[in-house]
Protein 1
Amino acid sequence: MRFSGPFSAALLLVASSSMSFASPEALKALDPDKDGTIDLAEAQAGATKVFAKLDPDKDGTLDAKELDGRLDEAALKAADPDNDGTLDPEEYAAVVEAKFKAADPDNDGTIDANELPSSDGAELLKLIYE
Ligand SMILES: [Ca+2]
Ligand SMILES: [Ca+2]
Ligand SMILES: [Ca+2]
Ligand SMILES: [Ca+2]
């Protein structure tokens, strides 16, 4: 799953003008090195925690029920290349990385406070912050 830069940038423009639910708490919680941005390693660390929380049956995979709407049916399908109907940690990490890139239109490898409130940022947050 790849989104082109211009497409994401356009989305961000639309999103940032109409939405401002940036959660400073989320940014703080996901930014242990306190540089004010979320890098991919920080996002994946958050994702690992969310994954564990969403997997109460501890079978090591997330099914649609455990994902609880964090990914819609189409997104789940796209994130599930082995088509077993569940996401294992690698598949989850891959979808987090794809969303991370989508939420980083300036491509500097970090999500800052301006990028986080975009719709892509919100979708990323659902996967890495709980
Ligand atoms: Ca950081
Ligand atoms: Ca499970
Ligand atoms: Ca799978
Ligand atoms: Ca960025």
Note: Confidence is low (pLDDT under 50) at residues 13-20.
Protein 2
Amino acid sequence: MKTFAFSALLLVAVEAQSTVSAWGQCGGESYSGSTQCVAGYTCIYENPWYSQCQPGSSPTSATSTVSTPTSSSSAPSGTGKLEWVGVNESGAEWGTAYPGTEGVDYFFPSTTTIGTLVNEGYNIFRVPFAMERMAVGSITASLNSAYLTPYSNVINFITSKGAYAIVDAHNYGRYNGQIITDTAGFQTFWNNLAKVYSSNSKVIFDINNEFNTMDESLVFELNQSGIDGIRAAGATSQYIFAEGNSWTGASTWNVTNDSLKTLSDSSNKLVYEMHQYLDSDSSGTGSDCVSNTVGVDRVEGATAWLRANGKKGMLGEFAGGNNNVCLAAVTGLLNHLQANSDVWLGASWWAAGPDWPAGTWASFEPPSGISYQYYDTLLKSYAP
Ligand SMILES: *[C@@H]1O[C@H](CO)[C@@H](O)[C@H](O)[C@H]1NC(C)=O
Ligand SMILES: CC(=O)N[C@H]1CO[C@H](CO)[C@@H](O)[C@@H]1O
Ligand SMILES: CC(=O)N[C@H]1CO[C@H](CO)[C@@H](O)[C@@H]1O
Ligand SMILES: CC(=O)N[C@H]1CO[C@H](CO)[C@@H](O)[C@@H]1O
């Protein structure tokens, strides 16, 4: 209500100013431009930091915080809040020297900065690891405690704070660079690892990061064997995140991964994890976003797929650069997920981690990561 009064005042004060173009920013903390949209568009309040010119002649409610999705899929029935908002904590998967040396080839995330983010309201952290370090020499090897112990310290720290920790095998469906075809061995790997966390319901198992350029039936089988291995370990209370082929992209999910809808989970806590970047090739290598609306454009097909198949989704990786176009695209994306929170459970930014240089465009490491500085206020406003 306070915000409403403030916007109304602002509107009166700047009436004489020029108009803002379609999808442009028209309000928000420290914004000083015009709040009047071009004909046919209305300035919609999204959050205290951002209002946007969206199609329509007048808002249904000036205090509405959720924009109406333009998707042609059936109407959302979201609760208006995501269950999870957080970040990736990258570092332990770095490098290709196996098992390699901690502090040289790879790094564990900082529990200090994770604590900072938890205190800000973030409640999910995806912690990538390399299977080659967890099981050295072969995927069926017993787990390597020199790597598992410090990794578990991070996981246990996160869950002790009440947040969820995603145990992410960051392997692209490969081990030592070779596509994993031994589904039984893969099941053994997950059985071994799930035993470690079987009594911790705040752990989430992420079977594999970004399968790509491999046979879809193999992706299916690896996923299914991972699920089966985890449940057979007695880890029955946890969510499992399954990723898809084609780098688990949300924008291509509806045309590459339809077969994954038949994965089965005896605990019925399976969530489809998708990734989406907003640069020209969706790779996340560029900090530019192709348009103000690309966030929504690239996920609405996945939203429709999730709803049509009665599934839940998690946007496990996303990011945008530190510029106005990306700010609009990221805001639109988060609003879309929130408006469709009946099928989207959450989102996690790529990436925090102590060893990203602070100037790396997507760095979310407190206090000086460039994206942390630019996006923290916005992102945490979506936290549950
Ligand atoms: C698939 O999803 C994309 C991205 O959201 C969308 O543009 C496209 O129309 C969808 N295609 C089908 C067949 O649903
Ligand atoms: C349909 C299908 O491919 N099912 C497979 C799922 O994965 C398990 C475990 O690897 C296989 O036993 C199934 O044949
Ligand atoms: C490889 C694969 O599973 N492709 C399927 C992905 O989903 C589309 C749309 O349902 C199917 O047509 C493809 O066969
Ligand atoms: C966009 C981005 O940061 N992608 C990263 C995803 O994770 C892999 C493995 O850590 C990195 O190599 C990518 O740069």
Note: Residues 1-16, 58-75 have pLDDT under 50 and may be disordered.
Protein 3
Amino acid sequence: MPENNNTNTSNADNAATADGAFSNPAGRKVSFLLATYNEKETICPLISKILATINNPLEVIVVDDNSPDGTAELIRSINDNRVKVIRRTKMRGLGSAYMRGIIESTGDIICWMDADGCMPVEMVPEMINKLSEYDAVIGSRFVGEGTDERDAVRVIASKLITGMARVVLGCKTKDIDSGFMVMRRSCLDAALFSPTGYGEYFIELVANMEKRGLKILETGFLFRDRDEDEGESKSFQSWLRFLALGSKYALRILRCKIWPL
Ligand SMILES: Nc1nc2c(ncn2[C@@H]2O[C@H](COP(=O)(O)OP(=O)(O)O)[C@@H](O)[C@H]2O)c(=O)[nH]1
Ligand SMILES: [Mg+2]
């Protein structure tokens, strides 16, 4: 697996190297978080894949924001007590959805990815194994064999945001907009994010993890684009939304510099 150890050795109390308890991650409970808004085409196959791929003990927590397409009902029809769906009727947003998932989770290992099936579940077991050496493993489009198959403009936008985070915050992570991470629960003792907005949460979390000296590994993955029959991107519904989101990402980077969490 192509990898890039992008960060520092850690002085944090909960650093992987300082805590031999993680030398055998087998048997540790995994909380797999998914956030959904109108994902009826992809959610059930994805959950089936997760259940088949990740060892028990496992919980899959889906935070759905009252999707009008019936995503939550579909998840409820899955007959498996490892799967839990939380339907929010008075809140929207990706950052707050993951925060809610974290609050509800009980695992020693927390993991999340998009619910559109464009990220490889099959990489997660190896990423979990790497937690014996690292606090967190980020699926990255921009290291090793990592690839981003989406439109060039979206790839460039992600690279620009990462570049800005590197210049303004001094981040070393090469894909600070990936949204695909596996981490030890103890990371939350050192780093958090403000639960607002869309993908800004990821930038803030990674920046804080780096700042607090957590050990992060980036590992390359192929980020494919959605097929036509796999629903639609929530970040690229119009140019206006795309530009507004980009501006909010940039503002979050500035806020992290001026008012770090
Ligand atoms: N709960 C929740 N999930 C959301 C919301 N917006 C997007 N998502 C989910 O966030 C993930 C990323 O969205 P996606 O459309 O794949 O964005 P893209 O990868 O940037 O094109 C998907 O699993 C979406 O269903 C929201 O407002 N609430
Ligand atoms: Mg996606």
Note: Residues 35-37, 39, 63-65, 92-94, 97, 114-116, 233-236 surround guanosine-5'-diphosphate (ligand 1) (CB under 6 Å).
Protein 4
Amino acid sequence: MSITLQVEVPQDGTIALSWEKDRRVRAHTLLVVRTGMVPAFNAWHLGGKTNRFVLQNLSRHQRYRVALIAANGEASAISPWFEVTPRLGVAPRCDGEAADIVECVSRIQNVTVMPQDQRMTVYWKRSAGFADKVVLDIFAGDRLLRQLDIEPEVSSISLDAQRGIDLENGTVHSVRLHTKFSGVLHNTTDKTFCITAAQGEERAANATMAGKNLVYPTLSVMPELCFFDDDEEDTLPTQPLSIVCGTCGSHVEWQNYQLVCRNCGAQFIPNGRGDFLDMSRLRFGTCSCCLPKKIIVQRLGSETLACAHSGKEHIRASGSAGYWLIEDLPFGLCQCCRPRRPLVKVDERICCSKSNERHTHEDGTWVLVPSDPVFDASAIDDLLDQGLAEICSTGVSRASAATNRRAS
Ligand SMILES: [Zn+2]
Ligand SMILES: [Zn+2]
Ligand SMILES: [Zn+2]
């Protein structure tokens, strides 16, 4: 199998790509790198019958590199890289050799684990680069318990019985991550070890662990310390503060990572500023990513709901009251939009919930069968110009952590 890619600049800001149809090919991956100080990486998974794709509204002053992979499940072929500046009169340049993608694949960094009661949460960062999936291996001792394929947009995941992963307290568990691109695992991390333990015992249980890369759930109900001279005397209580229920006045207990009224069952969550919120009065309820649970907030000027702590989007499930996290979506995210949107099932077809573009499943990946093979890049550039987005390896634009905090 081989592939011949044609690259043209028919007008300013536009790159038109085309290639020959080959019956054997089941899926194409179009790779686009925006070069510069901070390179950005974009990959589109397209169906086997698609033989052209147009990128519109790119910057005329930016240099891009493009290449194409054709695959049929067993074999794959990759074109050379083309260097393109989308400005009329500047001819695309081909370097002749098959593109080397290994150096462009994203890496997982800063893996941190929070051990809890029969549960752990894994956090990571991903460097710029291509990634179709983040693959997470979970071990109990030396035994591989599970391997999870996670969308590259996700940067933390909770593992517990709810996700079908039984973690026994007292067992040494470990996790290891890889990035998967074009069907191959790359850049495997070292293992991070922890011992799951009952609430309140997590830190002691892990005292003998290397201590690196572990964080613990905490709840502080102490008042703020007053250390200025003009503070009134005797404001510091000698006993730890106890919390009473706002509904019935009974004592509130900290159990199973929840603040629950012993008498009426009311639940409260700390808002992080020393106050406690009655869960039944929250407009959007609590998150499904953290334990202790955190408040869900609506991002300023948008319909997007996110956990105030982790920033994770909570996607409204049509026809039901609940929310989805990206890692629990049955079909994952689309190939048509940036940022990518959830795929949903409509009349036996899998479509993007935003654009309705149809997707099909090829060798473990959802590929786009575009009705109009044109991608408008202006949305991404607008976000970048406003400093609101960082394009990560799949080209998804999303608010940075700092923006999330500001918005909430
Ligand atoms: Zn109560
Ligand atoms: Zn959360
Ligand atoms: Zn889409």
Note: Residues 108-205 form a domain with the Immunoglobulin-like fold (CATH 2.60.40.10).
